[in-house]
């Protein structure tokens, strides 16, 4: 699957967003090494801090299906420029995806920014940091 197709998958994922509070729909599509695609959408809650972003939904869904090897992540929202993932998602992406994996950030106008996982969060806290 190419990047354009993965972006279309992210747009389909976005339509599944549950966003009664922000009304801000975000979609993510995560491609596995086997060519499978996991959708992620943001899912909000009346207890606002429980809201989960699209990027983490996609990653957690893949993990729940025992898929842990990924080749690309696309994220889309209705933003002026390419959507910018939050800090929490950057941290989770940096632990669960290869540091050189491309992350494609886009919007409904077709603006695209492609970064590696490492570029998305330079200096991320990592599992190695737990070893002192
Ligand atoms: O990259 C992003 C940025 C924000 N959100 C969600 C969280 C919340 O539901 C809404 C507004 O912040 O958008 C995402 O899912 N991904
Ligand atoms: Zn996030």
Automatic annotation (TrEMBL):
InterPro entries: APOBEC/CMP_deaminase_Zn-bd, CMP_dCMP_dom, Cyt/Deoxycyt_deaminase, Cyt_deam_tetra, Cytidine_deaminase-like. One of its GO terms (cellular component) is cytosol. It catalyses: 2'-deoxycytidine + H2O + H(+) = 2'-deoxyuridine + NH4(+); cytidine + H2O + H(+) = uridine + NH4(+). PROSITE patterns: CYT_DCMP_DEAMINASES_1, CYT_DCMP_DEAMINASES_2. CDD domains: cytidine_deaminase. One of its GO terms (molecular function) is zinc ion binding. GO terms for biological process: nucleobase-containing small molecule metabolic process; pyrimidine-containing compound metabolic process. This is Cytidine deaminase. It comes from Peribacillus simplex.
